[in-house]
Protein: Xanthine/uracil permease
Organism: Parabacteroides chartae
Amino acid sequence: MNYGLNDRMPLFPLLLYGLQWLVISIPSIIILGAVTASMNQEGAAQQILYIQKLVATVGGGLIVQMLWGHRLPLVMGPASVLLVGIISATAARADAVNTAIVLGGALLFGLGISGMFDKVQSVFTPRIVVVILALIAFTLSPVIVRMLFGRTTDVLFNFILALSLSLVMIYLNNRLPGMWRSMVVFMGLVVGTTVCFLVKGPQFPAEIGSVSAFSAHWFDFTFQLDGGVLLSFLFCYMALILNELGSIQSVGQQIKADKLNERSRRGISVTGLFNSLSGLLGVIGPVDYSLSPGVIAATGCASRFPLIPAGVGLIMIAFMPSWLVFISAIPEVILGTILLYLMGSQLTAALQMMAREKSVSSFNSGLIIGFPLMVALVISFAPEQALAELPPLIRPILGNGFVMGTLTVLLLEHVIFKDEKKSF
C-alpha cells in the first residue's frame, strides 16, 4: 500500500488521486440523478437544477465524511433504494416526499449519535439482508422497462442496444483490471450516448439557456406530513442503513481500520444529516457506495484525504451548470440500460451473500427468500388502475413492492418460522 488511511501526500498526487475519485463518483450521480429528476421535474432547466443540488449535496457529504464521519475512503452517491420510495409515492405531492426524506434522515442521525443502532442490527438476519438487496433490483424493474420501451416506437433498436451495451459492460467488468473496472459505467454511458447520437442525432432542449448557477429555487421546502409516504420511506431507510453499513465494513476490513463500530455510528450520523439536507433541497438522499475496495487494490492508495478535493470538485461542478447540460441530452434508453446493469449487479450481490451465508438449507428457508420477492414483483407490476383503488393513506405502503416485500420477509423470518431459525 503506497498510502495508508491517514497518510498525507504531496499536492500533485493528492490532486491526481482526487481527480480519480471525482471521475468515479460522477457516473452514479448522473444516472440516478437524471432518472429521479425526469420523474420529479418538468423541463430541462428544472432537471439540471435538480442535478446541481444533488451534486452539491453529495460533494458536501463526501467532505464531511472524510473529516468528521467514518473517515474512510468511500465515495458517495444517490441512494437507489430511495428511488423506490419516490416511485411508490408518485401520487403524493413532492412536499410529502421531501418531508419523508428529511424525517428519515433525522432518524438515521438519531440512531447514529444515540448508540441505539447496535440494537437495531439484530433484526437484520442474513436472509432478510439478502431479500432487501434483491428487492431493490426487482422493484425498480418496472422503471427500467418504461425507460427502455415506454416512450418510443423504436422498440427493436432499443432492445438490441440495451442488450448489446449491457453485455459489453459485463465483458469489460470481467476483463479490465482494478481501477478501470470502476470506469465501466462511465464508458457505457459515453459509448451508448454516442451510438444514439449517430443513429438519431442529439436533442438539446431549447429552454436550456435559462439555467443559472444559483437560483432561489435551491431552497423551496414546504413541510407536509403524509403518514403513508413517511412509513414507506422508513422501510426504504432500513435498506439504506444496510447499504451504509456494508460499505463501511467492507472498506474498513480491507484496510484494517480501527474502531469500525464507532466509524459506522459516525458514518450513519453524517449520512442521516445529509439526507435531511437533501430533503430540504428537494433531492434524493445520498449513501456511501461500495466501489472503493477495487480502486484501493488497484492504485495502492487507501488515504482518505484525496476524497476531500474530489468533494470540492463536485461542489464546483454544481455551480457550473453548463457542465451539466449534456445530461439533458442523454437518451432515456441509455439511462435505462445503465440502470439495468446496476440492478443486475445489485441482484448478484444478493445471490453472493445467499451462497456465502448458506441462507437456503431447507424448503422453509428458501420460502422466506422466494415468497417476499414474488409479493414484490406482483405489486410492482400491478396495473395502475388497480393501485389507484387503494385508499390514499395506505397506497404508498400496500402499493409499494419494496415495503410489502420487506414486511413479508420480516413476518416470515421473525414470526411464522421463528422457532425453526436455528434448524435452518
